[in-house]
Each structure stands twice: as structure tokens, then as C-alpha cells.
């Protein structure tokens, strides 16, 4: 039959950006966000309606919009309660109301209505099951569920990819999936290569090692990746030597120089933390210097030293800590 579905709600993000509106029937994901332009200028863009209300009520300030871009929600900011109640974002809304919102539009729409049901990080399987049962009972044709942090590698940033970065992320991610041994990301200093790499890590969803030329650069990259992936195991793996002098012999003077070294215990702990994360977690990103090419031994040796413990169980310390 022609025109069997004359009523639909376009969910696409492209249309919403052009029209300056939210996509489909989705609540706003954020009320304020930051765009980083090529000269490293930060442009804070806020919701036009919220900004108009804030100016009218006298509580607008650039600092407020910066804070909002950082935390995402008005809940913990110093604004009137009635404003918080009106300007709710996706993660402020109970999942049950997400389903009911979709159902209220579905009743009068022929095509399936697109809607994301946002769950907090601590949502249980039963919570998701209840959302599906509720959607079926209320007449929804389908729902999309997203639990915060459900991706092993979840990138957290106040800005998104720009310019050629999006194309680079897609092409390099495809190359990783195809098993290409070598790919090159071109770009001058300050063009956002680290952020591009972070987006590739999120896209590919695999444990990752980033190798830097030296300890200093590795430390800088580790700090940046920890900011991008605050919920993941981002580790720092470099040589634990503060000083290392290999043994040597100088024939001309018949001089023998003994091997000498100084081990940094804190760096050794970080190396062990890297190894532990790699053996126990799927969301591991290790930033290393070239020292990572030297083996640490057989992984089975590490597993033999693992003591599995569970909440509520009792263990004999002597039995668990046998050397």
C-alpha cells in the first residue's frame, strides 16, 4: 500500500544541527559544550534558550557556561531549582520516563520512533529488562539502550573531533580492523593528534599500547590519556632505572668498568600495575617508552602469584601468602 507510513519523526543528527534543534524526540545530551578551533581558542557554546533565561533572570556568566560544559548538568550548579527542573539533560531523566516519553510519541506515529534510553553506570541487568518489558507494554516498536560506561574504552572530553580528524579516525580505525601493520597519522604539533588517537582507541575497543621516544614524552601522553579515559586502566610503563651504566672495558688504558645502576621503586610499582591491568582488564591503555620491548617473563608466572578473594569470604593469611 502506498503511503502506508505517512507520519515519521526524523532522528538524524545532521538535520537537527542544520535546524538548530534537538534530534528527534531526544532530550538534550548537554546544555553547554566547548569547541576547540585550530588556534587553540576555546569557544563555549550554550543552549540558546537556557542562555536567554539565564540573562533574563540575572544569573548568566561565562564562568557558569564553562562549568556547565565541564559537568554536563545543572543539578549541582548554583541556579534556581525551577530552571533545573525545566532544563533536564538525558542523564538527569529516569529510564522509566525515557520509555514513557517514547511511547507517548509512538502512539501517533506510523514509523518506529527513534529514542535512546539512558541508564546510569550502576544500572543492573534487571533494570534494562524492565525497560524492554515496559516498552512492549506501552506499544513502542523498539528501544535503544545505552548504559553510561558500557563501552570498555569510553572517551570523556568537552569537545569533539574537528576538520580532518573525523576522516582520520574512520580510516585508521578501519586499518586496525583489517590488520594493517603500518599506518601513519600526519599532522603538525598542536593539530590534535593525541585526541585523534584517543578517538581511534574508543572506536576500535581493544587494549592499546602507545610507545613514546622517552620517559618525559611518555609521562606527558599518559597524563593526557588519563584525562581522556578517566574510567579506564591507563598505565605508565617505562624503564625502572634512574641510572644505568653497563659494564665496559677500555683496552687503551686496560680499564674495566663495573656495571652500575640505580632502580626507582616507584617506577617499578607502575610497571607492575601495568602488567596487572593487562592481565586482568580489557580496557587497558599502556603508555610506554621503548623499554617495553624487553620481556617481563612468562605470563603464567604472574598468574601463579594471584590470590583470588571475594567479599564476605575468609582466608588464612599464611596460606594465601606462601612465597
UniProtKB/TrEMBL annotation:
Signal peptide: none annotated. It holds the Pfam family Ribonuc_red_lgC. This is UvrABC system protein B. GO terms for molecular function: ATP binding; ATP hydrolysis activity; DNA binding. Residues 174-323 form the Helicase ATP-binding domain. The lineage of its organism: Eukaryota, Metazoa, Porifera, Demospongiae, Heteroscleromorpha. Gene3D superfamilies: 3.20.70.20, P-loop containing nucleotide triphosphate hydrolases. InterPro entries: Helicase/UvrB_N, Helicase_ATP-bd, P-loop_NTPase, RNR_lg_C, UvrB. GO terms for biological process: nucleotide-excision repair. PROSITE patterns: HELICASE_ATP_BIND_1. One of its GO terms (cellular component) is excinuclease repair complex.
Amino acid at each position: 500500500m502506498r503511503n502506508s507510513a505517512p507520519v515519521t519523526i526524523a532522528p538524524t543528527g545532521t538535520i537537527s544541527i542544520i535546524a538548530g534543534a534537538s534530534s528527534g524526540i531526544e532530550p538534550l545530551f548537554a546544555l553547554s559544550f566547548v569547541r576547540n578551533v585550530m588556534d587553540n581558542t576555546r569557544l563555549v557554546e550554550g543552549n540558546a534558550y537556557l542562555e536567554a533565561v539565564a540573562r533574563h533572570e540575572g544569573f548568566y556568566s561565562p564562568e557558569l557556561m564553562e562549568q556547565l560544559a565541564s559537568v554536563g548538568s545543572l543539578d549541582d550548579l548554583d541556579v534556581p531549582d525551577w530552571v533545573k527542573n525545566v532544563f533536564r539533560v538525558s542523564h538527569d531523566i529516569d529510564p522509566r520516563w525515557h520509555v514513557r516519553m517514547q511511547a507517548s510519541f509512538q502512539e501517533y506515529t506510523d514509523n518506529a520512533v527513534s529514542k535512546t534510553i539512558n541508564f546510569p553506570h550502576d544500572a543492573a541487568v534487571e533494570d534494562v529488562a524492565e525497560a524492554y518489558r515496559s516498552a512492549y507494554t506501552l506499544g513502542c516498536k523498539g528501544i535503544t539502550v545505552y548504559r553510561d560506561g558500557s563501552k570498555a574504552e569510553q572517551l570523556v572530553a568537552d569537545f569533539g573531533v574537528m576538520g580532518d580528524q573525523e576522516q582520520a579516525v574512520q580510516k585508521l580505525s578501519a586499518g586496525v580492523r583489517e590488520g594493517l601493520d603500518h599506518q601513519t597519522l600526519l599532522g603538525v604539533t598542536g593539530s590534535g593528534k593525541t585526541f585523534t588517537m584517543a578517538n581511534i582507541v574508543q572506536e576500535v575497543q581493544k587494549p592499546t599500547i602507545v610507545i613514546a621516544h622517552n620517559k618525559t614524552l611518555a609521562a606527558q601522553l599518559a597524563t593526557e590519556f588519563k584525562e581522556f579515559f578517566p574510567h579506564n586502566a591507563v598505565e605508565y610503563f617505562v624503564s625502572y632505572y634512574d641510572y644505568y651504566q653497563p659494564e665496559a672495558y677500555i683496552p687503551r688504558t686496560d680499564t674495566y668498568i663495573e656495571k652500575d645502576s640505580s632502580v626507582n621503586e616507584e617506577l617499578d610499582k607502575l610497571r607492575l600495575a601495568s602488567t596487572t591491568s593487562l592481565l586482568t582488564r580489557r580496557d587497558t591503555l599502556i603508555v610506554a617508552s621503548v623499554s617495553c620491548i624487553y620481556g617481563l617473563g612468562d605470563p603464567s608466572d604472574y598468574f601463579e602469584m594471584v590470590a583470588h578473594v571475594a567479599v564476605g569470604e575468609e582466608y588464612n593469611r599464611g596460606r594465601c601468602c606462601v612465597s
